[in-house]
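U., I forgot to send this yesterday:
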Amino acid sequence: MADLNDAVAELTANLNALIVALQPILTGTAPLPTVTFANTPGTFKATELIDYSSRTGTALYQDGVRSLYDDETKFDLNNERVMNFIDKVKARAEKMGWNNATQGITTYQVDGQDVDLIEHYGLIDITEIQDQSKPWYEHGGAKVNQRAAQNNTQFFEMLMNSLSETSIDAVKVYENEYMLDDNSGTNKLVGNAAALYKVIMRCTVLDTKATNKALRDRLKDLPTVVTTVNGDIDAIHSHFTVNYNQLRARGADMDDKEELLFAAYSNVPDYRFRKYMDDRETDYFDSRGDMAGKDYRFVMQLAKQKYDTLLKDTHYKWGTPSPAEQQVIALHAELTEVKSENLQISKQLKAKLKDPKGKDKKGKDKKDAGGGPKTKNKKDTSNKTRQKKDEAWKKVAPKANEPKTKEQGGKKWNWCEHHQAWCIHHPTDCDLAKKLRANTTQATSNQANQAETSTNNFTANYAQLLAHLATLSTE
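Result:
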């Protein structure tokens, strides 16, 4: 009986202790557990190893290595899509903590300064990337068993999962630059994510033609681009941004960005837009009003706003010419009409000079004038037919996801948007584009002068022809 009483007393004491311990929780006075802040799971404890044996660790790995694109789209090394690709890579790196200060793998030293690989890939040589990333990929490296090594693997797998099959084939040509020996003596190769990214960028924008000069030439060609896109401001800005950002990625710049943009806007085929941007240009160079101290980004913002406003105006048609241009158009139409009337009069004169029997002025029959029926010289068309067959491919434009350069017949060909054909020359060196650019600024004034002169000449000729017909009819 005593043992039972002792057991009851012990149980009672334990229950009382439990009640005391639970009292703060039951009354809401217990301190809340400490939570470490993080914007994303990848940046939570970004310096610590990820436990891949846990469900959380597995989910984090899968989120890191998945493709940058939600649909079937893959990056195809297309220069026009590269900025979108870079933005997506940067966002993923920030989300997963790959840019962490101590365990990150996207920052490299160049001349003693920290340089971000993702945005400034052109400033970092691939040999520097290979050397500075040894701590997390080389056997015995200081971070080879730390979070940096895990980040490298995720980054590498993500890049490969985001490339199209043809892009993978293209970068594999340089596999020896990103699949590196870990120096363990076992010939084990480790994928280096930063080196792979550098190769992807080189295949996309840093080829032998995309030098600083070539990029500057593309930017200077902006006024010609305006005519090819019919004044589409979004397309104009896209061309500028892609080439300018590539130039910046190489550590270079241009001092005349604003001048280039204003020159392009002056070629836009819409009178109200041109007038608005011409006024902004004057204010910019005079440092007057809201344009004082502004840069190219503000200029582009104003152009975009005006463009969108004009497109949304239901009472205005985009592409409306100026009054002077409308006068040129009217003169051209009148000139065309006068030419047509003059042609009709010429036909009447020729008929009047022949007698009713179909004889010419010398009295000879028309059929005998040439000494017998005429025959056409037949040319040998066999070579021409073969040539047309051989060169038919030159007119086949590349699809949106296909490169604009290729090898054919042992030569390198470039798709020229100006000739709409595959050519040996590069589009930036196209003579046709240069002629279009040279003629654009002079075309309007020349048309007006020519139209007025031609109209006066044809009007005088028309009167003379009518007088001559009247003379013939009285004979």
